[in-house]
Amino acid sequence: MKTILYYYTGTGNSLWTARLIAAELGDATLCPMFLMHGDAMADAEAVGLVFPVHMWGVPSLVMNFLKKIKKDPDRYYFAFAVNAGQVSRTLIQLHNHMATLSLKLSTGIDIVLPSNYIPWGGPGPAEKLDKLYLTAREKIKRVAPGIAQRQTAPMEKGPLWQRIVFTALYKLTFPMISKMDGDFWVDEKCNACGICEKTCPVGNIVMTAERPTWLHHCEQCLACIQWCPKEAIQYGKKTPKYERYHHPEVTLKDIIGQARIPERSSVRQP
Q: Positive or negative, the Cα torsion across 8, 11, 15, 20?
């Protein structure tokens, strides 16, 4: 096996991206970041990281994953940051973080897909979504040969104003993310199916008295609210009127099939 692609996904965008990358590279294996698969990584010549941008930066889950993997400075590392148009300084941040672990991130790619951050609204009209999917497909196809040839390239980044404003916001919000699940609530449509518990990638939800309870080690991936079949989970005051979103080519079975970790990482600072 030449390449292993570790992905983190909540509503499917990053999994879809990882599948396209694997198809373009050929000899590649996909694995959720929640599974370490040390033996698989030991045989890999290249390791790819595919993850969503959270609060304009690298999710703590990704940084925790990097702390645990077997370090090999000679291996080729690359990354795809999936976002809704606000990649900001995420890939530069990842590059610098990996350098502290004696790992070199050789290239970092910005992939723009529909937003799943429902507290700020729905994903948008179907025509817009289709255009984003097409553009992402074309970009992955365009950059894959360089990755296959183990090329090095500068980290892709957002405009200067993003890198200034959003980096400051990331540093401000990062320590608060784990407790942001306090704004989730459940309306009368909940039928206690437990899908929210099964889809949470970090085991942050348990069913209590036939209602979900959030345990305050949230990653803000929003899998729970977006996959709820009854649209019974809400966040804040506005989400009851917003359209739900998950990638149309990713199924609930795909998400539930991922392993979950029981505890949040000890990472606390960006």
A: negative
Quick check: 7 and 18 in contact, CB under 8 A? yes
Contact 69, 97 (CB under 8 A): no
Give, for 214, the enclosing helix (H) or strand (E).
strand 211-214
Which tens digit of pLDDT belongs to each residue from 192-211?
999 999 999 999 999 999 99
The structural domains of the chain, with segments of one domain joined by +, span 3-168, 173-256
Q: What is the pLDDT of residues 45-59, one digit of tens each?
A: 999 999 999 999 999
Radius of gyration of the chain (CA): 18
Q: Which of 19, 31, 52, 48 is nearest to 226 (CA)?
A: 52
Of 3.90.1150.30, 3.40.50.2000, 3.10.350.10, 3.30.70.20, the CATH number of 173-256 is: 3.30.70.20
From 8, 28, 4, select the one nearest 16 (Cα to Cα).
8
17, 113 Cβ separation under 8 angstroms: yes
